[in-house]
Mandelate racemase/muconate lactonizing protein (Stackebrandtia nassauensis), 395 residues
Amino acid sequence: MRITKIRATPVAVPYRTDETWAFGSRSGMVSVLVELDTDEGIVGLGEAAAYPSAEIVLSVLKSVERLVVGADPFRIEQLIQRIDVVGTWHHVKATSPAIAAVEAACWDIVGKACGQPLVNLFGGRFRDSVEFFYYVAAPDPDTVKAEGTRATAAGFTTCYLKVGSDSLDIDIERVAALRDGIGPHMNIRIDANEAWTAGTALRAVRAMLPYGLELVEQPVSGRNLQQLAYVRGRMDVPMLANEACWTRYDQLSVIHNGAADVLSVDNQMDGGLLNLKRSAGLCAAAGMTVLKHSLGELGVALAAATHVIAATPNFRHANQAYGALLSDDIVDGFGGGVDNYRDGCLDVPTGPGIGVALDPDRVARYARLYREHGDTEFSFQHPRALTTGLALPKH
Ligand SMILES: [Mg+2]
């Protein structure tokens, strides 16, 4: 079998409410849907987060086209090695989502050709469903509380809250409001996206301790592992590394420096589903648990990762997904909207390959939305981020 063509379609899907973090803001999500045609009629489906932008994803896809077209989709290791080495993409993390989408689409072809869901090709079902968090992206404490109540009603067990984009007092108010909304038993995970200094991080976590925190994600810079280890050693809450460990090479450094308790791993930032499995294996060897990070993704990329997570033992925490924020999706029964989740979990798809299919009407609708607004309201370069980004880090 040979790959005959790469087709790429950027789509923009609006959020229910804006997403704001320490360094940015956006009103929806852009993804690039990738379809690989083959000479045997099987079409492989993949998806790349538009990171850092859809234009860059499309450029990377164009640049690897001559390596991908003509390749055997079963020879995934060989194809990715050629892209890494011949294409020299091993130097560049931020352009990885396009390559990851090609890799996932190859796996979709393999699964469809074999008549097997991906979970059966990645080790089989260690678990039948995969847990995800509820993303609380609300600016004021009253709305944070209401979102917490919505998360509880929908059956989620972990809420995720961004901190670090406002004063510490406001962040503490938000955490208190969230605990008020969810009651005593649900997990609260906070993510500062590197915005704090070591001193602020320690003060913040101490002040938030009465409200109960599950994990503190990347409170300080990911580029100074000694500082991360210093903060970790003085906190009474487990530390989750994110910006410190985008790739397996970074993860190895975090492990060697004792700079985290839990690592987030990301197939989009590290070149594919095989590397997601390898990341988890690296951490398992170090006695560490992992969870999947998300740059923001729709149902295709989410379903692809769900297969690998289901087949890998040390994914022991609620993983990242945007179901609570997204108003819709481009596949049925998976991804955007809390109605797709049962007790915060997604069932592993049972169809061959990734096991989801694009809805042509919604793809057309959101492709149009991308063409009209994608590069502004829905991108990582949202206008509000452009006007506020220079002041950070500010604590
Ligand atoms: Mg993070």
